[in-house]
Amino acid sequence: MQDSSDGGTAAEQGPVRIDPVTIAAGDGARLAATLYRPAGDGPFATLVEALPYRMHDITSSYADSYLRFAAEGGFAVLRLDLRGTGSSGGTLPDEYADLERDDLRTVIGWITSQPWSTGRVGMFGTSYSGFNSLHMAADGVPGLDAVVAMYATDDRYTDDVHYCGGVLRALDLIDYPLYMVAMNALPPVPSVWGDGWEAEWHRRITDSPPWMLGWLQHPEADATWRRGSIRLGPDGEGYERISCPTMLIAGWADGYRNNTFRTVAELGVPWRLLAGPWVHKDPSTARPGPNVDSDREIMAFFDEHLRGGPPSSAHPAQVFVRRPTPPEPDLAHHAGTWHEFDRWPDPSSETLVLTVDGPPGVDELDVRGDTGMYAWNSCAGGLPWGQPLDQRLDNARSITHDWPRDPADGNAAIVGHARVSLRVRSSATVGHVSVKLCDVAPDGTSTLITRGMLDLGHRGCWPADAFGRPDGEPEPLVPGRWYDVDIELEATTWTLVPGHRLRLAIAGTDWPNCWPPAHPFVLGVARESVRLQLPIASLAPCTHPFVAGPGPSDGDDDGVVWRYEHDVLARETRVHSRYGGRYDGEAGIVIDDLYEGSLGISTVDLARGWARGRSRFDLHLPLDDGSTAVCSTESRLDVRSDEHAFHVVIELDAWRDGELVAERRWTDTLPR
């Protein structure tokens, strides 16, 4: 790799100058970046996005936004390959590692020292780069003056792809955790790295650990998860660490929707919240609409806080309040209306409390392992896993309570986190409680509004238990003993309308979203204990002048598979997913990728489950001599559970032009 701050030859694309650059990290690793600058000498305020997803090939399409930010917005933009990924040197031992944060401090310092820089920097990004934008804001890095985090979390343990309410997320295992094993083992781009790119490739394969193995080895909310969680950091600090203006963009069909109301309620800096109906995708094209031009909103926020421009919005929060809409896995448009508020809780907020009528009693449920399959993957929420289906079949395998909405009651908007109080017992030393809130239409269609999950062994342990203590310790249940628990449901919006019923569905599993417990059990719920608290708000109609986005593509489901099957004789339910394709990167690079996996669960023994997946990348990389190197990596996962343990096998193979050049294998047995 070239050892200079000017990493190569500048290019022009319209009114934007594009420069490859390298930046020296504190330990000598060379970090690869691309700098986009508007025409003219500047100086410019600079926006930074830092990702492990390879800027020259796998996420080269992100450059469309960078070009727009430079040409239309007048910002310089720096896109960085994180260390050990893409064309950057070094090794990244885990996501959001301390080394990553050290590098980002160095990068921001480098920017502020450049003659083309005003010394004012903003960080932004979706998902991973939204996370590290918040991390750097919490670190108070000099020169970082504003951040925008889209589809990001404030709590890595219970609101990410790892665990939910203390329960291992199952479906996520075959996606991001698995494909990062293969992606992190890909070579640097030869035209960027230069001589020695193959040696660097082999070093990566040898030195890069599978991140997911470490995640599986930490099933409790320990210090591993506090690193990178702004809700509660390693030393007990919280949101007060954030010292620069912060914008959050969230989607009600995305897994990171909890980083909304609770976050802005605690921020002590200027903030903005934009929360729409979207999945984990650009709000201009995400399902379901209505869609908005989010790049325009991001530019306005940075103009306000980096250059002293006009307010980006008359009110800091714009929130889409959903209305009942028939469920579809590829829903393109959700009914609802935009509203706005200035602070949270909003002065109109109140709590509606619902209880169960009738005589006291105990409702019991012989928990079935495949209950939950008609919802959706709570993290990503997009294709192939889709959006929630009609919940009636899952409701039939749950304890349910309905409350009709009387015409005299009119409409009411749920905005925030609902809370469910229960007295429960398990027939075993383990047990989970899954709670879903559904809207039941007059024709019986049951639409998922929001949900929550708690491993009863983690009761009293924050953040798995939202009402627990940070110093709480998990402990097994005493079979037959009653426990009082409170479960916080995920942040949401929904309009209750007359003629519909509100349904609370209580179950013991939420599969394949979460891995079922280690032993069959009967869940008991004291009927008189059921108490549902709904956050009701009368928010002002939205006056913000959104510009509409182009909307979802008709080809979003091309090549996508999401299939259920039930093996009657094996007494097993399975789900299968597959997606991928071919696309172009920069400078003649062609990428083929494939993501596929299956999960299974016994319907007679909760302890017996499995997850198998495969992720593959084939990079067609042009070389200086005019030839092309086809560099491939494939990661495979096999996780099986029984009553006592998770048995994990992770494999990685690498090929050059079809010839195997490396293979690795990791195994572990993790007690449940």
UniProtKB/TrEMBL annotation:
<feature type="domain" description="Xaa-Pro dipeptidyl-peptidase C-terminal">
    <location>
        <begin position="299"/>
        <end position="541"/>
    </location>
</feature>
<protein>
    <submittedName>
        <fullName>Unannotated protein</fullName>
    </submittedName>
</protein>
<dbReference type="Pfam" id="PF08530">
    <property type="entry name" value="PepX_C"/>
</dbReference>
<dbReference type="InterPro" id="IPR013736">
    <property type="entry name" value="Xaa-Pro_dipept_C"/>
</dbReference>
<keyword id="KW-0378">Hydrolase</keyword>
<dbReference type="InterPro" id="IPR000383">
    <property type="entry name" value="Xaa-Pro-like_dom"/>
</dbReference>
<dbReference type="Pfam" id="PF02129">
    <property type="entry name" value="Peptidase_S15"/>
</dbReference>
<dbReference type="GO" id="GO:0008239">
    <property type="term" value="F:dipeptidyl-peptidase activity"/>
</dbReference>
<dbReference type="InterPro" id="IPR050585">
    <property type="entry name" value="Xaa-Pro_dipeptidyl-ppase/CocE"/>
</dbReference>
<dbReference type="InterPro" id="IPR005674">
    <property type="entry name" value="CocE/Ser_esterase"/>
</dbReference>
<dbReference type="InterPro" id="IPR008979">
    <property type="entry name" value="Galactose-bd-like_sf"/>
</dbReference>
<dbReference type="InterPro" id="IPR029058">
    <property type="entry name" value="AB_hydrolase_fold"/>
</dbReference>
